[in-house]
Design goal:
Number of strands: 0
Number of domains: 1
Number of helices: 5
Radius of gyration: 18 Å
Strand content: under 5%
Shape: extended
Structural class: mainly alpha
Largest sheet: none
Distance between the termini: 49 Å
């Protein structure tokens, strides 16, 4: 928990939360929790150490994507196959594209809403 608290405080910063586009919510805390549970199942009993590792991996994945996980594997001197690297980088590109599309859509909706209120 001590490792997650600073991240939670940073993600719940009012300045960061004000940047929500088009009235949409950016629930980054839920997104981070989802990643943690991907690494550490809620259905099986996990030790505190496993939960800490899951939280660390989730933070790395949240901040750096699949590339961050590959860097951890490399640091641990674990062999990653060429296909795994390609797939990871492809998933990162797709994740970034999706985020950009969602951001553009939200921005467009916000501009339309702003224009509509000006005309009223």
């Amino acid at each position: 928990m001590d490792m997650i608290k600073p991240i939670f405080k940073a993600l719940s910063n009012p300045t960061l939360l004000k940047r929500c586009l088009g009235g949409k919510t950016q629930n980054t805390n839920e997104s981070l929790k989802s990643l943690i549970w991907n690494f550490c199942s809620k259905n099986t009993n996990s030790s505190r150490k496993i939960a800490q590792i899951a939280a660390n991996l989730a933070c790395i994945s949240y901040n750096n994507g699949e590339k961050g996980i590959l860097d951890v594997l490399k640091e641990l001197e674990l062999d990653t196959g060429e296909q795994q690297v390609k797939d990871s980088l492809l998933r990162d590109k797709e994740r970034i594209k999706l985020a950009e599309r969602c951001c553009q859509k939200a921005t467009l909706e916000a501009l339309k809403a702003k224009k509509k209120t000006k005309n009223c």
